[in-house]
């Protein structure tokens, strides 16, 4: 049911417009926001969905001259300079400033809900081909990726290049110094610890970048018979546990800038340096990104010497929680499996395996940014809803 307006009036000497809805609820809109959001062709470029009105032309103290309910589906406003604006009821309702409406809009735009997990994870699975060619399946995959943080796609061909198809499905892959895709296998003179047969501790990829990739894809092309099991842990779940268990440790890890470095030659020569907090938090103190990779944590540590030991103690507690049996989930990829996961939330690792004369284990990896993935999710949702 589309919303209908019962009554409209100006309040607070014309600084607010009050809309009373047919269901009895009401919304209050600041007039400066209404003028700034005018949808007329002079103020808004509809073909680009972008504001044309220059901010320097906006009077932040503006009041309405007249507001009328032209029909129950829209309101009309005349401003002091005689400029007129119209606002559709549905458009206004979605942008209501009430706490409830703002929460609904956040949910619709960003899908902020998280489903936390530990060793009890039921790893979500879906056929690779379905994701490539079926919109409903692709939408389910991306929603699950956002909510749970991980999904396994099965049945891809056991050859290089399959991740390029996945990149095209979401939009495009993220290019890094290791190339558009990269090969995880035992290499002589490895330029990354992942390119060895040793155990990989829990980590997120690429905290040495100012903006680490949001989503990671790992496609199993060849798997060793013994060892090489994959491990994952829900970093946000562990952060919540740490915050409960030791608030001071949480505060240290979310406020201390740690140096990360990555130097070498691959797609091109690189010398990357960055400072990251191991736990990035939002205004409410909730973890929004984990930046933790012990291999690329620099020996340079730009903090006072007397604070170093307490930092290490906090990190040790966090690391112990990551590795506890109740939190980590272990599985083994088979050729044709593609694991897709949130690199800002899910930390991953690998058990060691034996090196041999030939390559016994081969994964192809790639990254995508959350902006690209969320864009595709919204487009798929719009397409699916338009069919209903």
From TrEMBL:
<dbReference type="Pfam" id="PF06155">
    <property type="entry name" value="GBBH-like_N"/>
</dbReference>
<keyword id="KW-0223">Dioxygenase</keyword>
<dbReference type="InterPro" id="IPR003819">
    <property type="entry name" value="TauD/TfdA-like"/>
</dbReference>
<keyword id="KW-0124">Carnitine biosynthesis</keyword>
<dbReference type="GO" id="GO:0005739">
    <property type="term" value="C:mitochondrion"/>
</dbReference>
<protein>
    <recommendedName>
        <fullName>gamma-butyrobetaine dioxygenase</fullName>
        <ecNumber>1.14.11.1</ecNumber>
    </recommendedName>
</protein>
<dbReference type="InterPro" id="IPR050411">
    <property type="entry name" value="AlphaKG_dependent_hydroxylases"/>
</dbReference>
<dbReference type="InterPro" id="IPR012775">
    <property type="entry name" value="GBBH-like"/>
</dbReference>
<comment type="pathway">
    <text>Amine and polyamine biosynthesis; carnitine biosynthesis.</text>
</comment>
<dbReference type="GO" id="GO:0045329">
    <property type="term" value="P:carnitine biosynthetic process"/>
</dbReference>
<dbReference type="InterPro" id="IPR042098">
    <property type="entry name" value="TauD-like_sf"/>
</dbReference>
<keyword id="KW-0408">Iron</keyword>
<comment type="function">
    <text>Catalyzes the formation of L-carnitine from gamma-butyrobetaine.</text>
</comment>
<dbReference type="GO" id="GO:0008336">
    <property type="term" value="F:gamma-butyrobetaine dioxygenase activity"/>
</dbReference>
<dbReference type="GO" id="GO:0005506">
    <property type="term" value="F:iron ion binding"/>
</dbReference>
<feature type="domain" description="Gamma-butyrobetaine hydroxylase-like N-terminal">
    <location>
        <begin position="12"/>
        <end position="92"/>
    </location>
</feature>
<dbReference type="Pfam" id="PF02668">
    <property type="entry name" value="TauD"/>
</dbReference>
<feature type="domain" description="TauD/TfdA-like">
    <location>
        <begin position="118"/>
        <end position="367"/>
    </location>
</feature>
<dbReference type="InterPro" id="IPR010376">
    <property type="entry name" value="GBBH-like_N"/>
</dbReference>
<keyword id="KW-0479">Metal-binding</keyword>
<dbReference type="InterPro" id="IPR038492">
    <property type="entry name" value="GBBH-like_N_sf"/>
</dbReference>
<keyword id="KW-0560">Oxidoreductase</keyword>
<comment type="similarity">
    <text>Belongs to the gamma-BBH/TMLD family.</text>
</comment>
